[in-house]
Amino acid sequence: MPSKTIDTGLKQYFIGPKLRRLRLRKSMGLVQLAKHTGLSPAMLSKLERGVMHPTLPTLLRIAMVFSVGLDYFFNPEPKPMFEIVRRRDRLRFPETPDAPDVAYFFENLDFPVANRRFDAYYAQFLTAPASGPRTHAHPGIEFMYVIAGKLGLQMSGDEHVLSAGDAVYFDSTIPHGYRSAAAANTTALVVTASAP
């Protein structure tokens, strides 16, 4: 039976909850984990609930099943990704910094998030200059949701007009350009991501 000091010291590592999260991420039941480790389901349940603390050999058996090192159980888990971006903190940028006729402005909605899997923008589209919208291309995919107005999306020589509430998802390696197809400016949510 561990002393109260050892029990208190081990509780700070949250070994039981970490073990449970590993098991649930793999959609594995206690019986299934027991078969892989050679430990009883009852013992694994006690470990998860913190009723019992594992020995290092027991913990190593479990770690091997999930392909993690022993250090996983003793290091703090990374904090879950969570970031609020206030409107007042967003910066507004023109489509091209030095262009005399700007077709749109954008604000990055997720700039403080590290290692993000996509980029989200709030965009305001202006009526196109006489020369028409400039086209551009970039690796990945793009998703747009029109919030207000009408958006002219030019792709492969064709213009597609989207109204408020319409959305489009497309391969952004195809040259594309935008303009407001309404008398007033048009706003949209734009999401870009690298192709899988």
Structure summary:
The chain is of the alpha+beta class and 196 residues long.
Describe what you observe in this structure.
This protein has 196 residues and is α+β, with helices and mostly antiparallel strands. The protein has 6 helices and 9 strands; from the N terminus they run ααααααβββββββββ. It has helices spanning 4-11, 15-25, 30-37, 41-49, 56-65, 71-74, and strands at residues 92-94, 104-108, 119-125, 141-148, 150-155, 158-163, 167-171, 176-180, 186-193. The strands form 2 sheets. Strands 1-2-3-9-4-7 form a 6-stranded antiparallel beta sheet, with no helix packed on it. It is elongated, with a radius of gyration of 26 Å.
Query: Major β-sheet, in short?
Result: 6 strands, antiparallel
SSE string, helices as H and strands as E? HHHHHHEEEEEEEEE
Strand order of the largest sheet: 1-2-3-9-4-7
Overall spatial form? elongated
Instruction: Classify the secondary structure makeup into a structural class.
Output: alpha+beta
Write the layout of secondary structure elements.
Blueprint: H1 4-11, H2 15-25, H3 30-37, H4 41-49, H5 56-65, H6 71-74, E1 92-94, E2 104-108, E3 119-125, E4 141-148, E5 150-155, E6 158-163, E7 167-171, E8 176-180, E9 186-193
Antiparallel strand pairs: 1-2, 2-3, 3-9, 4-7, 4-9, 5-6, 5-8
Helix pairs in contact: 2-4, 3-4
What key attributes describe this structure?
elongated, six-stranded antiparallel beta sheet, single chain, 196 residues, 9 strands, three-stranded antiparallel beta sheet, alpha+beta
